[in-house]
Design a protein that fits this description.
This protein has a single domain (2-189), classed as 3-Layer(aba) Sandwich (Rossmann fold). Helix content is 36%, strand content 22%. The chain contains 8 helices and 9 strands. The protein has helices at residues 2-10, 21-31, 43-48, 50-55, 69-76, 102-108, 127-145, 151-155, and strands at residues 14-18, 36-39, 59-62, 80-83, 87-88, 94-98, 113-119, 170-174, 183-189. The strands form 2 sheets. A 6-stranded parallel β-sheet has the order 1-9-7-4-2-3. Helix 5 runs parallel beside helix 6. The two termini are 18 Å apart.
Amino acid sequence: MEKIVENLRKNGFTVTEFDTAEAAADYLAGSLHGKTVGMGGSVTLGQTGLYDRLKADNTVLWHQVAPGDDTCIPACNAQVYITSANAVSQEGYILNIDGRGNRVAGTLMKKERVIFVIGENKLSGPFPEALDRARNVAAPKNAQRLHKKTPCAVDGICHDCASPDRICNALVVMWKKPSWCESMEVVLVRQDLGY
């Protein structure tokens, strides 16, 4: 973990570490006031209770609470965008796979702050292992959770399928913090969160 944190920082990401999801949620709720906050679909974010914490003092748009095309654009264009990641490589690269592209788009569009809330279970070895984790751990579990009709939902292995229900149509790798972004932060939680 220490090497990954060091490499994330070398790549321009701010890293804030917490022992629990509750402590991470306290930190984020305390640092966001009166903002429009977009939240990408994420089991990790659901486990932190962050939506309820943030909506008391911010306008929060979350794909999971109000799914559909009408919420994607406003959430992606929010002042602050929060999501998780499917994997973080040893080199400090942040990997996200997406089906519709809305969740990854929010991390690529200019805004004040982008925040990745990541459990320690998503930390991986070198890039090929992180990609394997994203494709063969996170994506199949998400396909199962969403009741998708894909081969990976059946056997937990990516088949690079052509299913209309495929949820892994786009891969975004953050090698470095994009130059347009004032703050791109990894909130690292020393617990297993999400897939």
